[in-house]
Every structure is written in C-alpha cells, then in structure tokens.
Specification:
The protein has 9 helices and 4 strands, in the order αααααβαβαβαβα. The longest helix has 29 residues. It is an alpha/beta fold. α6 links the parallel β1 and β2. The chain has a 4-stranded parallel β-sheet, sandwiched between helices.
C-alpha cells in the first residue's frame, strides 16, 4: 500500500531537486495555515462574543472543520505523491495545492533561506510524476510541444513565433531537431515569447496535453496557469545564461512525447 511510486523520476533531470523539498514545504505551509485558523478557536475565550452567545460555538466548529480539512488534504496529497496511486478527490487536492499551497511554500522557502529555483524544480518534478500517474494517452494532434523563443539562435533573422516552419533548418539551434521530432510523431509545435502568447496558443489549439520546455520560473507559472490541463515540464539548458540560445534535452523530450502517445511506458529510476 505504501510502496514508492513507480512514476518517480530521476532527480538529475531536475537539477538534483527531490520531491521531499516540495513535501516538506507543503507540510510546513499546512502547519502555518492551521495555526492561523486556530485563531478562530481562541476568539471565543477572548471576551469578544459576550453579547453573542452563539458565536463561540460557530467559531470553534469552523476552526476545527478547516483544520481537519487542511490536514486531510495534506495527508491525501502526500500519499498520492509518494505512492502514485490515484485516490478519489485527489484532483481537487491538486487544485488547492497549485493555487493555495505553492505560493505560500515559496514565501516560506524565502524566509528560511531555501533557493527558490530548487523549490520550483521540486514542484515541477512532483507535477510531472502526478501527470504521468494519471496515465493519459492522447492522439498526436492532441499533444502540444510548447517551446520558448530562446531556443532559436539569437542571431537568426527568421521569425518563428507565428510560424515555426519559417525555420531554414540550418542546424544552428535546436529548432531543426524539434521540427524533426514534430514531423516524426505528428504532434503540434508552437513557440511562444512569453506567458501571454503561450496562453493564447493553448486557447487557440485546445490540446489535451502539453509538453513544455522552459526554465523553472516559466514552467512553474505555466503549470499554474494551465491547470487542470496536464503540463509535463522539461527544463531547458542554459549554457549562455537565461533567455538566450538555450538548449533542449532532446532525449528527455522525445521520451515524454512517446509516453503520452502510448508508444512507451514511463522509465522510472528516481530515488525521491
């Protein structure tokens, strides 16, 4: 029952980040929220409700109910993350985590001196494992490869954002290989200059699944913005620094494409 998830991914693909970072910060966030809610349990004894004899009972009931709900959400999600076993209602738990817990987790990480990039990479790793555990298989036309414009060589004069096929396929940047991957599997491919354009592309193409390549910051915001649409994030490589002449780990990207097309099972070799 408590066997480790078969969808666990190798930390090396995420800069060494492990999901224990995400789990630890999530539990800490839950504790902070429970402490805040406990304030409602103290109010009845603070002499504020002397003229409203029915308010203490409402305050106590509300506080206890919310604390139990928060603890249940955390326990359910930790079980799902660790075992990879789907539990009824876990989709709602993921929604609460993405919208509520993660912003608080980033604040806590900053307060205790944990690198924000490491937290984001851990979040992406956990998200990818949860997406894989859902076992979604799509047709090629339903899968979108979403790429940042920085994969194009900065000195290239071609305009690829609106039409990647404008690429001359000179081999000077990853776009040539990405187009070859698209043609090989028949999936869709788009290049975005930022979050607004990326959202517009997703709304226009309406894919059932997205494999996105970007940095930690953009992947994290993209996963949050696209929920509940499943987004599998692949971290780019930045030999020249952020946002310029970035590279794509093509083997990892092709593996993800094959998994969502039902051509390969997830290769699991992670340790947490």
């Amino acid at each position: 029952m408590f066997r480790k998830s078969p969808f666990s991914l190798p930390p090396e693909q995420y800069g060494g980040a492990r999901k224990r970072i995400f789990i630890g910060l999530m539990l800490a966030s839950c504790f902070v929220l429970c402490a805040l809610v406990a304030f409602f349990l103290v109010l009845p004894w603070a002499g504020l409700f002397e003229t409203r004899h029915w308010l203490p009972m409402i305050s106590i009931t509300f506080g206890i109910s919310v604390i139990i709900a928060l603890l249940w959400l955390c326990i359910l999600l930790v079980f799902y993350i660790y075992t990879g076993k789907y539990v009824p209602g876990v989709d709602s738990v993921r929604h609460v985590t993405v919208r509520l817990f993660f912003p608080l987790m980033e604040l806590l990480a900053k307060a205790v001196g944990i690198d924000r990039g490491k937290v984001r990479r851990s979040f992406i790793k956990v998200n990818n494992e949860l997406v894989l555990s859902a076992g979604r298989i799509v047709r090629p036309e339903e899968l979108l490869l979403l790429l940042p414009h920085c994969v194009q060589r900065s000195s290239c004069p071609q305009r690829l954002v609106h039409n990647p096929d404008n690429c001359r396929r000179c081999g000077g940047c990853p776009v040539d290989g990405l187009l070859a991957l698209r043609d090989k599997y028949g999936v869709r491919l788009a290049i975005a200059t930022g979050g607004t354009i990326a959202r517009r592309i997703v709304v226009g193409l309406r894919p059932r699944c997205i494999v996105a390549v970007a940095c930690e910051r953009d992947l994290t915001s993209g996963i949050q913005d696209s929920y509940p649409l499943p987004v599998f994030g692949v971290l780019n490589q930045r030999p020249h620094g952020p946002c310029i002449d970035t590279l794509v780990p093509m083997p990892a990207l092709e593996d993800a494409v094959r998994i969502f097309l039902g051509l390969a099972a997830p290769v699991t070799q992670g340790r947490g």
